[in-house]
Amino acid sequence: MTHLSLYQQLLDACAALLLLLSFAMLSQRRVVTLVNLYAVQGAVLAAATLLLAWRTGEGHLYLSAALTLALKVAFLPWLLHRLIRRLEVYWDTEPLLNVSGTMLAGLVIVVFAFALAQPITRLTSTATRSAIGIAVSVVLLAFLMMITRRKAMSQVVGFLSMENGVFFGAMSASYGMPMVVELGVALDVLVAVLVLGVFFFQIRERFESLDLHHLESLKEHE
Amino acid sequence: MELLLLLTLPIAGAAVLGLIGADRRAPEINALFSLGTLLAACALVVRVIRHGDLLLGEEQFFIDPFNVFLVALTAFVGLTTALFSRPYMRVELEHGRLSSGRLRLYHSMYQLFMFTMLLALTTNNMGLMWVAMEGATLSTVLLVTLYRTPGSLEAGWKYFILCGVGIAQALFGTILLYVAAEKVLGAQGMTALLWTHLDAVKAQLEPTVLTLAFVFLLIGYGTKVGLVPLHSWLPDAHAEGPTPISAVLSGLLLNVALYAVVRSKVLVEGSLHSELPSMMLMGFGLLSVVLASLLLWRQRDIKRLFAYSSIEHMGIATFAFGMGGPIANFAALLHMTVHSLTKSSIFFTAGHAAQKTGTQLMEHIRGLITLSPTVGWGLMLGSLAILGVPPFGVFTSEFLILTTAMRTQPWATPILLAALAVAFAAIFSKVQPMVFGETSGRRLPHPPALLPVFAHLAIVLLLGLYIPPYLADWYRAAAHLIGGP
């Protein structure tokens, strides 16, 4: 049995927390809590980035941690909360698959994700490579969440959580992407949420609801 | 310098058009900026012809024969679409389908969309390419929903979510690429995502990770190309958005996405030395051709019909890139060019037809030739061109693809031929009554200005009869670059 350093243990704890939070999101139907969970996930991500920055001494990781903190812990959750209040969407309806079914599907996905991450883990030499499987799991779990939810707001949180997973993957596999790319990605996420905000108001203005079953009329043969 | 202009003009255009807002001259200003972009693109082309490949801006931008012709094509269709949209959107405004505030959004986003596509084409950085591709989705989502009808909102939502999820997969693929490259190129700085550097060391990249990366990149960018089974956003977005947007989505965005796929394929193939990427492209391509041609029969909306035809043609080009080799690549590049020109001109005429008759349902569009001969002939000629009737350019490219398929992939030839025949029958049987059918409507007093349509069709005809030597050299150089078995 090898002994892991405290730092390593902390990082693994962060990774485990991320996975747990993904499962929590998967089972949560209250939209406000969903956004809070997303904020916590962002915070854990920022903590992991900070740890990694401190350990490797790479300057751009500090920047990226600050960016995560500002964007994913503060600004986006604030924006989403505001949207929820203005649009008055507090609850998601019963998901397409019930909670226990979703959880079981989630478990299968995690096993699959770790199998998928095997070759990547073998290639990389970073201290965090054990977390790659978790990153892939977070991405796929977010994907599952987007498939099973009906409300637009939950789908968006799923989308954002997916981006968190991708980001965590980049970090654990190669200590982050080049700064320009990371900035660009952050910009895109920001714009995406702003566009969505506008979009939600358009949807509600038209349907007086954010339930996506209104958006199922475009079928092949009417 | 040319590149700087090429990229800053659309941004400046977006800012100016956003600021001046509902000015009466906004459509002209939009066209003017597009003209400037086209001139910059031409200057860039001249420079590449004279001096060969260019690496600019600390290696962040890379221009080679493959992307320079797409840059020129993008800028050209960008200009003609801006010219077309000038009178078209004015009529939409008069019909009350839009407010002048939304027209401001439209013009500003149009320029921004041009910028993201040009950035995606010219950048050397696979990461920036991803950012630009996502930017292209974001700038067009609000354009698809411009009319705010229930249908357009649904189309916009589908477009956003499907392409958003797709593009997240592409980001994961890009990261995997970076991970593999970092091993070889070292983590210092940015070089590990620069395409030219990756291309230089592609033989040393870890094959398993690159396979995974390619799967993610293909799914991600393939969603944007509209490859079956990731295509379901495409017909909705094309049918529900304003016509100029359908034209640029179909004519330009799909090309840019396919460009991203092919760039990835070049890298992965160099690492793998196996048939896998080729097989995947051929498989997806063939599936798209077959399914789209079958679905063509069920369409009742004119813009949906041609959206499915876009899926079919993108499938053909993808299949050709999958076969690889100088002739198939050449044909695929030619096909991208002629499809882009033909399809945008078809959307122009289809838009006019729908505007004149007040419906997009094909059963209610009848006798265009009586209502307006220019629209009628434009639609007829455009449809014949896209169906691959000689002497139009689409015939040349499809002929080359089919003959190559007979030689290297004989099993696929009958499938392709059958699909093309089905598509021919489906489209022709629907277009014929629309153009020549009986109508009670009277001839329109003013013929619509359809100069862009006939300009596009003339170029397509020219490309079918005679490909200028410098253009052929270009295609050949690009085809060589893409390589393949």
Index terms:
heterodimer, A: 222 residues, mainly alpha, 7 helices, 77% helix, B: 485 residues, two-stranded antiparallel sheet, 19 helices
Brief write-up:
The complex is a heterodimer of chains A (222) and B (485). Chain A has 222 residues and is mainly α. Chain A has helices at residues 6-27, 31-56, 59-87, 99-123, 132-148, 152-174, 179-207.
Explain what this protein looks like in three dimensions.
The complex is a heterodimer of chains A (222) and B (485). Chain A has 222 residues and is mainly alpha-helical. Chain A has one domain (9-212). Chain A has seven helices and no strands. The longest helix of chain A has 29 residues, at 59-87. The radius of gyration of chain A is 18 Å and the shape is globular. Chain B is mostly helical. Chain B has a domain at 275-485. Chain B is 78% helix and 1% strand. Chain B contains 19 helices and two strands. Chain B has helices at residues 2-20, 26-51, 65-94, 100-122, 126-144, 150-185, 195-200, 207-225, 233-240, 243-272, 276-295, 302-323, 326-357, 368-371, 373-386, 393-408, 412-436, 451-465, 469-482; strands at 54-56, 61-63. The longest helix of chain B has 36 residues, at 150-185. The model of chain B has no long low-confidence stretch (mean pLDDT 88). Chains A and B meet through helix 4, helix 5, helix 6 and helix 7 of A and helix 5, helix 6 and helix 8 of B.
